[in-house]
Design a protein that fits this description.
By secondary structure, the chain is of the alpha/beta class. 36% of the residues lie in helices and 17% in strands. The protein contains 10 helices and 12 strands. Bound molecules: 2-acetamido-2-deoxy-beta-D-glucopyranose (4 copies). InterPro entries: GH (IPR017853), Glyco_hydro_5 (IPR001547).
Length: 333
Amino acid sequence: MIFILPLIFTFIATISAKGSYPPYGQLQVVGPHITDLNGNVVQLRGMSLYYSQWKAKFYNLQTVQALRSAWNANVVRIAMGTDRGGYLTNPEKEWTNVKNVIEASIETGIYVIVDWHIIGANPNKDKALAFFSNISQTYGCYPHIIYEIWNEPANTTWDVVKAYANELIPAIRRYDPNNIIVVGTTTWSQDNDIAANDPITGYSNIAYTLHYYAGTHKQSLRDKTIAAINKGLPIFVTEYGTAKVGGGVNGTVYPNESNTWWAFDDKYQLSYVNWHLSDVDEPAAALLPNTAASQVGDPAYWRSSGILVNQKYQKTDQGLGKPLVPFPLSTCV
Ligand SMILES: *[C@@H]1O[C@H](CO)[C@@H](O)[C@H](O)[C@H]1NC(C)=O
Ligand SMILES: *[C@@H]1O[C@H](CO)[C@@H](O)[C@H](O)[C@H]1NC(C)=O
Ligand SMILES: *[C@@H]1O[C@H](CO)[C@@H](O)[C@H](O)[C@H]1NC(C)=O
Ligand SMILES: *[C@@H]1O[C@H](CO)[C@@H](O)[C@H](O)[C@H]1NC(C)=O
């Protein structure tokens, strides 16, 4: 952790004026991998925020800077709530939450996933189209941005998800020709094998979602995923948990199962994002109840999942050790 202090001073010196490049610059999808523009395979590892309508207290610069400096995270995920009091009913409020984290990520020099956080069969396509048109028009020039267009399709078929993606992708590509778009898969983003048999065609830089919870999902899901990778499918783990699905307040984390999954992810060079960086009182949460944004970087406020994930991220190279490169914001306005 000795590298942290110099890093903090570096970016405090540069951010407010300019913003910073994310560590690997512009990303692309090449075969089953995410690479930089020179074709070097890279992995993103980081944290997902919790539903924006309930945990907006972490949707800010303080949190994003702590994720980079104390969590060694090179990506943050915005889980923008849609139903249940989110964007569908309060679009201005949630757009502001999204804007705050995108701009914090540009300042801090890490990647940011903009996730249309909805579970189920109805992604509210018209609202999603308007939202992603706006985000791609406003921020598509920044290499920090990754789009996640339907968090967890469920009780639906790949035909439906694919048709949705084939409307969302061109709406985004109209303004943003480059940044990665991650497409959810059926059964709460666990059916990459189905997507691999019928992938989206005609667009570059498309990846497919895998979600897993280490206490629940085991080798059979890894086997399905290997089959998809072997067919060339690029997979992005935009959500994984160290606990069980719906872990319950008295649940626990599964360190060994988490390690088995991380070894798998690293073997196949998948990028992965932990659900969730919040203080909700449940085992998958990284923070203790009543933690404030100013305390996200303080180990005294990390609960067992957070400690486990943080230790893992400290042991991996996230490309954050080198000096920040100023990003010329003027090229994007
Ligand atoms: C995006 O939405 C915000 C919030 O409604 C609005 O202020 C902004 O003008 C929109 N931008 C574009 C390009 O549509
Ligand atoms: C979706 O399907 C699961 C079982 O696969 C079921 O438990 C759940 O109730 C269904 N949800 C809806 C909204 O139909
Ligand atoms: C959690 O454990 C406490 C203490 O054993 C118990 O009182 C409570 O009912 C449990 N909650 C759930 C949801 O199981
Ligand atoms: C977890 O892994 C550790 C270290 O590999 C091992 O010693 C331990 O027996 C494992 N525990 C379980 C419950 O599998």
